[in-house]
Design goal:
Chain A: Keywords: Signal. The complex is a heterodimer of chains A (365) and B (176). By secondary structure, chain A is mainly beta. Chain A is 15% helix and 38% strand. Chain A folds into three domains: 108 residues, Immunoglobulin-like (Sandwich); 127 residues, Immunoglobulin-like (Sandwich); 86 residues, Immunoglobulin-like, CATH 2.60.40.10. In chain A, strands 13, 14, 17, 18 and 19 form a five-stranded antiparallel sheet that branches. In chain A, strands 2-3-7-6 form a four-stranded antiparallel sheet. By secondary structure, chain B is an alpha+beta fold. The chains are: A mainly beta (365), B alpha+beta (176).
Chain lengths: 365, 176
């Protein structure tokens, strides 16, 4: 009997380290920041999705334990439960860590931390977020704009960076810079309506210094579309406000930019073709343009000698076409070329060139 | 009796004289069978293909395109007339289609018999009845046979190099 008690006791002693030991929490299924691109002096939310961690029950208190760049309080910092097994924390890095932007960048390349319960009975392994200086790499990329994340969705944050230094004559901007944007080639849009103060506020970029501007939007709410809207692309330009609230107006704009939504195949480039390749003044000509931009309507103007004719290309986005009876329009004149001008509904010239007309061999030869 | 014999002789010589008026068919005077028999008629367009000869040689696509549903080509008819002896006379193009060759004039074949080498016979189009002003050439690339289908090809060339052709596919609705 005593022997049995001894064995049980020894068994319990052996088990003790395990009972007292820490339980590992499986790493989050997904970690992301909102906004995707953030500066060290703006609020950011870190999100942790523990969809499949068995060690955590829904909504149980969870804490951040961070040591790089520093541990700001020396105590675990509570996360907020956002539902759907997602925990998050929102803070502004400079305030949170009590460090300047420069100090933060001079520190480690990553934020290193783990997540745990209050007593550290269960905890994750070491986790990190890269402290990637997206703005710095954007400036170094030499691009006029950039966006993040690459897999942006209709209902989540899209960050847009704009480098006004690289757009000729854009700077200096007299006042704020605004986003004039739309989805699916302006199917849904939020224009920069300079005369509306609330729209000025809604569309304003944040100047993060040295001519670099940033804007975070959630496309679904920003453009007021439903969650079933099929986003194919995001089009936008940066517009300068004249700063004159009495006579509000645009004071200049960047070129148009276009981002293809994730998962949407890159559209084929527009292709203009003439059939046949060579014609005489006694032939008919077929003008075709494939892979047009949404909403694009094309028209042609043909000048030969003293006569000019014009008309529209018929069709849809995939293909627009015009059949032109050159013989009827131009065979009465002796001309050796015609001039073709093809433009869209905004007056943008697609084609603006001469087409030489072929001669015909003498039939007796 | 003598008178009766005289009368018989007279009748016989009359018959002989009259019989000289009938032409004996010994084969010498039959009109030769020519292609005109097959070609003459009223031809209605069933398709028109524009062929880009430049693209075809370069191996580019498309190299042909149907224009049948454009420019009122579906109203086009070609009438090729011959006289009672089967000699070609006038031709006429009707309908509202683009005028790719002169719409009326006179026609004949470059060679009225099938070519020994099998090449396409050529219809020559003239402005005048004397056939001195040549205005166009149509290659008969599909000869009507058991079915009344014909294909005519109009080709334009510069310096001997073709750049565009039109292939007329036609049918004779008045079945022969």
């Amino acid at each position: 009997m005593n022997k049995l008690i001894l064995i049980l006791f020894m068994g319990m002693m052996c088990m003790a380290p395990f009972a007292k030991g820490q339980q590992a929490i499986a790493d989050p299924d997904r970690m992301w920041t909102v906004p995707s691109v953030y500066t060290m002096d703006e609020p950011v939310t870190w999100n942790f999705d523990f969809a499949s961690a068995e060690q955590l029950s829904d909504g149980e208190p969870l804490y951040l334990w961070i040591w790089a760049p520093t541990n700001p309080t020396g105590a675990p910092i509570p996360l907020t439960y956002s539902g759907e097994r997602v925990w998050s924390i929102t803070f502004t890095p400079t305030d949170f860590f009590g460090m300047t932007v420069e100090q933060l960048w001079a520190n480690t390349e990553n934020f290193f931390f783990l997540l745990r319960d209050i007593d550290a009975n269960k905890l994750t392994g070491t986790l990190s977020f890269p402290k990637q200086d997206a703005v710095k790499s954007f400036v170094e990329s030499g691009e006029q704009f950039a966006f993040a994340p690459s897999d942006f969705q209709l209902g989540s944050t899209l960050s847009i960076l704009f480098n006004a230094n690289l757009v000729p004559d854009f700077l200096p901007a007299p006042a704020s810079v605004h986003l004039h944007a739309g989805l699916n080639d302006w199917d849904a849009k939020q224009e920069f309506q300079a005369w509306l103060p609330d729209i000025r506020e809604k569309t304003a970029f944040r100047h993060i210094g040295n001519g670099i501007y940033k804007k975070d939007i959630i496309p679904e709410s920003y453009f007021g579309v439903t969650d079933e809207y099929e986003m194919e692309n995001f089009v936008f330009l940066a517009v300068k406000y004249n700063g004159n609230d009495a006579q509000p107006d645009w004071a200049g704009a960047s070129p148009d930019f276009r981002i293809i939504a994730p998962g949407v195949p890159e559209p084929l480039p527009p292709a203009l073709s003439f059939f046949p390749l060579k014609i005489s003044a006694r032939d008919v000509l077929v003008i075709t343009r494939d892979n047009n931009i949404r909403g694009q309507r094309l028209s042609y103007t043909i000048t030969g000698g003293s006569k000019t004719i014009s008309g529209n290309l018929e069709g849809n986005m995939a293909r627009q076409r015009a059949y032109i009876n050159i013989q009827k329009e131009f065979s009465e004149q002796t001309i050796d070329k015609i001039h073709l001008l093809i433009k869209d509904q905004n007056g943008v010239a697609i084609y603006n060139q001469d087409m030489p007309l072929m001669k015909e061999d003498d039939l007796l030869q | 009796m003598r008178t009766k014999q005289c009368l018989l002789w007279l009748c016989y010589s009359c018959i002989l004289w009259l019989s000289a008026c009938t032409k004996l068919d010994n084969g010498d005077y039959v009109m030769p069978i020519t292609l005109y028999e097959k070609l003459q008629g009223t031809w209605t367009l069933t398709d028109l293909k524009q062929i880009d000869e430049t693209a075809k040689i370069a191996g580019l696509k498309p190299d042909e395109m149907s224009l049948y549903n454009q420019f009122d080509f579906n109203t086009l008819q070609i009438v090729l007339e011959t006289d009672d002896d089967g000699i070609p006379t006038i031709y006429q193009v009707t309908g509202n289609a683009p005028v790719l060759f002169e719409t009326n004039g006179f026609w004949e074949l470059e060679n009225p018999f099938p070519m020994a080498d099998g090449s396409a016979p050529i219809i020559q189009l003239y402005r005048d009845a004397e056939k001195s002003i040549l205005t166009g050439k149509l290659h008969v690339v599909g000869m009507p046979g058991a079915s009344p289908q014909m294909e005519l090809k109009l080709t334009r060339s510069q310096a001997g190099v073709p750049y565009v052709s039109y292939l007329y596919q036609l049918t004779d609705l008045n079945l022969k």
